[in-house]
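Sequence only, no structure available. Ideas?
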Amino acid sequence: MSEAADQALIQTEAAPPPQDLQPPFDTLPRIGEFRGHTLVWLLDQHKSPAVREALMAFWSSHGAIADAASAWRRTFEVGVVALDPRGQIVGVTSVYIDHLAFDGQPYWFFRTFVRPRSRVIGMMPAMFQGTFARLALDYAGEPGAPVGIAAVTENPKLDTPAGNRIYHRIGLRLLGTNPRGLRVWRRLFADASP
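Reply:
I predicted one. Tokens follow.
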């Protein structure tokens, strides 16, 4: 993992939780804060039925993942959960492993969803940086492990000059487009700077 990613994680681990953080998220590792929101790490943590139910209800209530079986499966891919000061879910990141056709290497493919009323400037980058830092800390350099994070721009609202600037600021670099014409981005764990 890069020194910058390691330092970012170290600085955020000590972030205090909101006073009223409630189960089922109160026992999860806290990896940072952003504008009063607590970022907790869920990947490879014990996911109780209560955690899975809360995530599924979050996605369902915002029309993000309507199919219960798909939502249940996605709960096992959740990396960061962003919680508001009342302990309510406002956003999640999820990752899954696949290979990029551009170089044949394995990557963590990154997805994110933030509820509409919580889409403030900087929320997604904070969640991405937390996800990147934790994945780099936990897995970078292991034989056969993903070499970084890849993201595919599926939301047309993000495929804009402003969206591209955000991707560049968080260290993602454009590789090109996939067969569906969607932009493909990546950030390598070996990359020490955004």
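Residues 123-139 form the longest helix (17 residues).
Hope that gets you unstuck.
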